[in-house]
Each structure stands twice: as C-alpha cells, then as structure tokens.
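Lab channel / #folding
Pinned by the channel admin:
"Please post every new chain as: sequence first, then the structure tokens as a reply. Keep commentary short and put observations after the output so the thread stays searchable."

First post following the new format, from NK:
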Amino acid sequence: MRQAGPRVGRFGRSVSTCYGLTHEIPGLGRQVPVFRVDERGHPNRHGVLHFLAGGTYWFERESGSHQSFSGLPPFMEDMRPQGYLGRGFPVHHPELGLPGRIVDWSDDHQLIALSKRGEDCVGNLLVGEESLDRFIGETIPSYTRADYPALATGALAGRPGSSAGGEHPKFAVHSGGRHLLVKFAGGDGAASDRWRDLLLCEHLALAMLRGIGIPAPKSDWFDLGGIRFLEVERFDRIGLKGRRGVISLFAINNHFLGDNLDHWSRAGRQILDEPSLRMTLADADRLVWLDTFGDLIGNTDRHFGNLAFLAEEAREMELSLAPVYDMLPMVFAPAGANLIERKFSPRPPNALNLHLWKEVAQHALKYWSLLSGEKALSRGFRHLSTECLETLEQLVGQGF
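Reply from TO:
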C-alpha cells in the first residue's frame, strides 16, 4: 500500500484505520475541504471529503469523527444546482466544462460545480477553497422592488441565481436587509392569471400558519409592471452573510430511509425509528399536521423536496422542522400554458392523523373561506374556493 502512494488512502486511527482506493477528479484531485459558515457569517473549517473508487466518499470532520457514504453525502444533496434557478448554471459557467444539462451531471460534475462556484448554495456549507474564497470576497448587492421587473426578465433569460430548488420562475435577491426568494407571474392568458392567484394563495397560507403558531417565513406580494411578485424570506440566511444548516426530507429519505415512502406523515414516523437521526415527537406530530393541512387545502405538490429541517451536519443528525414553504392549492396549477380544472378531493382521516384531523380541518375551512372572500383574487378563483369550502364542509359533516 505504501508503494501505491496516493492511489490508496488511509483513514481513521489505530484499530479503526481503514484503507480505500482513491478516485481523482480532474481539477480537484482526490479530496476537497469543507467549510461551515456560522450565523455571523464567519467560515470555519469543517472537514475533508475524500473521493474513493466506486462512488464512495469518506468524510473526516475537524472534530475527529469520520463517516463513509455511498454516493455524495446527504449534506450536499440540497447544495447542488437544481430546479428553475439551477438549469442555467452550465451556460453561465462554461469555463468549468460541464455538460449543458444538469440532469446529465455525474457526481464528479456536481463536485466540480460546488467546489469552484458553490459560494451561494442552500444551507451553511461551502465546498472547496475556491468557493470559500469567492464567499469571502463576495459583495452582496442590494435591490429595491423597482428592480424586480428587470430581475424577472433576467431570470426568464436564464441569468444565474441561487441554487434554491423548485420549478416556478423565481430569483434570489437581497432587499430591505433581507435575503428573499421572489416568485413571479406575468403575461396574459388564463394560465398566467391562475399563477397570479396561486402566488397570493401561498402568501395567505403562510400568514395563516404563522397566525396559529406554526413557523412559516414572512412573505409579501405586490403587482408591478403587469407582474405579480411574491417575496418569501429565506430561513437559511441570517443578516448579510450569516447562514443556517438546512437539509430536505428528500436528502434524508435518499440517504437514511430509502423505503420509497409516499408522504410526509409516514416519513416522520420512519425518522423516529432511524437511530442515526434525532427528531422530537412534537416535530413528528407537526409533520403529520402539515401533511394533513396540505391535503385539505389541495396542495398536491407535497413532495419530499418541499419540506426541510434545520440541522447541523453530524453523524447523529439533530433535526428540527424548518419553517413551512410552498404551501398552496397546487391542485389548481396550470399544466404549462393550459388551464386544467382538476377536482379537489380531500381525504378523510386515517390511522396517522385521526387524533388531529378535526382540528386541522377547521383551519382548512377558514383558509378556503378566506380565499372565497379575497378581493385580490380573480372572480373565477374565488368561485373555485367557495366550491372547495363546500366540499370540505361536506366531508367534515360526516362526523369523523
């Protein structure tokens, strides 16, 4: 093994020493440092990620602990360029020589992107010295709402933004002393009008949840230049450069659960049974609450990327539910440029949510009632909301 030189890596100490065949990535070598940014914006060395053959990685933390991963570590899952904002990454960084479509990227491509242009990823980690240097030297511009129409035009043209996921048109911005994700909807036609309605629905859902004590980011909306904008505060950013650790349920499921779970409620129960994860019973119950509320307000987009936890990357993850986001009646979202009226079909209680279904249903009824009377919504959507209110009232009236 000594004769093999750097082709064989030695990890751990004493009786826990392990050996592995290393993998070299062009331009990166066989390892890359990982840094963690604290809430004051100060980066600290967190560990070193070693690349091994066969798609395996060994992470050595500064604390002295270590861990192997089959595939990229879970804390990198949400950092990678993805969604609407991530698709333009290859075009705007041709110097990296990456494939033109992020869906064609290998783990090596992901690591190159994160190590060289990963200064503005979701969460609080930085991969590679080049991304660290870019973060330290970064000057964060501040914008006003008057700049938003131009920023929206740039986003539609594919100008670079944050790696925050999601497929709805959006851009990331620092404005009014806050880091924001700004969704927008413009244009003419029924589909555009529907997206305007849905952005307002999201704002109203977040406000309602905050009003009953459930953490949700502050949001605001306004119309400017024929475009409706929805500002949502980012919960992974603090002040100008401070950050917080975040991991999605998608990453947790991929790396720790892997049971092809079909909804949030069951995933929460599975997390409680996973020895390498730690979550309170209260958060598990809150997860069921949110899953039920989403169903009763027609949020058919409750995939695992739309729920996240605040977490510090560690061998035993301490998870706490992050503020709610992307909570709106997506059952009525357009399909491309077409407006397809789908049926709102809320489900009766089940074994997981029976103890809280009535309570959640009352809040969902208030939400549909709020939408029914909201003058800023189109007349057609207010009529839809009234129908949904009546549908849910009939279900509640069955006396579960």
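NK: The radius of gyration is 23 Å.
TO: also worth noting, Residues 5-137 form one domain.
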